[in-house]
Amino acid sequence: MSHYPSARFSVAPMLDWTDKHCRYFHRLLSRHAQLYTEMVTTGAILHGKGDYLAFNAQEHPLVLQLGGSDAHALARCARLAEQRGYDEINLNVGCPSDRVQNGLFGACLMAEPGRVADGVAAMKAEVAIPVTVKTRIGIDEQDSYEFLCALVDRLVDAGVDALIVHARKAWLKGLSPKENREIPPLDYERVYRLKRDFPGLTIAINGGIKTLAEAREHLRHLDGVMLGREVYQNPYLLAQVDGELFGDRHDVISRHQVIRELLPYIEQELGKGTYLGNITRHTLGLFQGLPGARAWRRHLSENAHKPGAGIEVVEAALAKVAEPVVDYS
Questions:
Q1: What is the 8-class DSSP label of residue 89?
Q2: Is 291 annotated as a binding residue?
Q3: pTM beyond 0.90
């Protein structure tokens, strides 16, 4: 059904969360889940001091999520990203934060479908990799189904390869970004309807999905599902994705093994001057629901930020969680 199978399941781009350390950790859990960068603005890429396009080779399939509204700048960034080896470019038309609106990108762009379409067309003209858009179902009082369809019509004409729809509208005034992820009601049926009306367009759904059983239900109607906070808070969910949603029933990695496989990466990063806590913060939820999970979290939270903290902190935390005995008899 989908043009490219990795779109079947993805981990949402989450500002301040899905950095390269998080993605490396997530890739140890799933070979097939599509991973996204945090939203990176065109201004940061073109004028910032740091390397905003850096990633680890192991992270593929990997999508760069761009924030911006200037077609020329978007096209330049898309070209740079393709040269660096990204698998896909995604334009953010869903983020409701104030700093995003002030820079004219994110959810406020839903009100300017022509500008969004121009950006998509400019990127499509520059790159051979897929160009996709992540959007909401509406903003403020502009939340009719017709409003959403008018945007999608323009995007299809511009050649968009896929759409990821967060099945809530965004309130640009009066709600914080966190409240915008929780307060506006979910409307999955509206996204299903969109797929029925645009059958040739790859459409994935995002928002409030907590289990792979729910994901499978959405996949009866749509091409893909995207999970965000649930994966971040309970990352071991990813270990089931390859078998459950991609039919790749390889041996499932254990939680302890994930951390053991992460240790060489941590050592390498510490050697570059990375703080241990910048990596281990993404792993705090790995043992969620198991005996020792709290001790794991506490030891990392209390020690990973200390000057000179190294992998011995991780090993000590790991020792606080009993490893299940595998019976091969």
A1: E
A2: no
A3: yes
% of the chain surpassing 90 pLDDT? 84
Q: Has 77 been annotated as catalytic?
A: no
How far is Cα of residue 34 from the mean position of the Cα atoms in its chain? Answer: 8
- The pLDDT mean for the chain works out to 93
The CA dihedral of 217, 223, 228, 233, to the nearest 10 degrees, is: 50
User: For the chain, how many residues are written?
Assistant: 329
Nearest to 254 by CA among 315, 316, 326: 326
d(CA 135, CA 95): 8
Question: From CA 180, how far away is CA 324, in angstroms rounded?
Answer: 40
Q: Is 134 annotated as a binding residue?
A: yes
Identify the three-state secondary structure at position 170.
Answer: strand
| 166 assigned ligand-binding residue | yes
Q: Which residues pair with residue 206 across a beta bridge?
A: 166, 226
Residue 23 is inside which H or E element, if any?
Answer: helix 20-29
What single-letter DSSP state applies at residue 319?
Answer: T
Calpha distance 133→158 (Å, rounded): 11
Q: What's the pLDDT tens digit per position in 165-177? A: 999 998 888 778 7
Contact indicator for 89, 127 with CB cutoff of 8 Å: yes
Q: Which domains does the chain have, with CATH numbers?
A: 5-246 (3.20.20.70), 255-318 (1.20.120.1460)
| pLDDT, tens digit, 9 for 90 and up, residues 221-234 | 999 999 999 999 99
To the question of whether residue 208 is assigned a binding role by annotation, the answer is yes
Asked whether residue 47 carries a pLDDT value surpassing 50, the answer given is: yes
Mean pLDDT confidence for 111-130: 97
* DSSP E strands, the chain: 9-11, 34-41, 62-67, 88-93, 131-135, 162-166, 202-206, 224-227
Q: Taking Cα atoms as reference points, which of 41, 117, 122 lies closest to residue 75?
A: 122
Band of pLDDT at residue 328, cut at 50, 70 and 90: very low
Say whether 56 counts as a known binding-site residue: no
- Among 29, 63, 37, smallest CA distance to 241 is for 29
Say whether 14 counts as a known binding-site residue.
yes
Q: Which position among 22, 77, 95, 108 bears the catalytic label?
A: 95
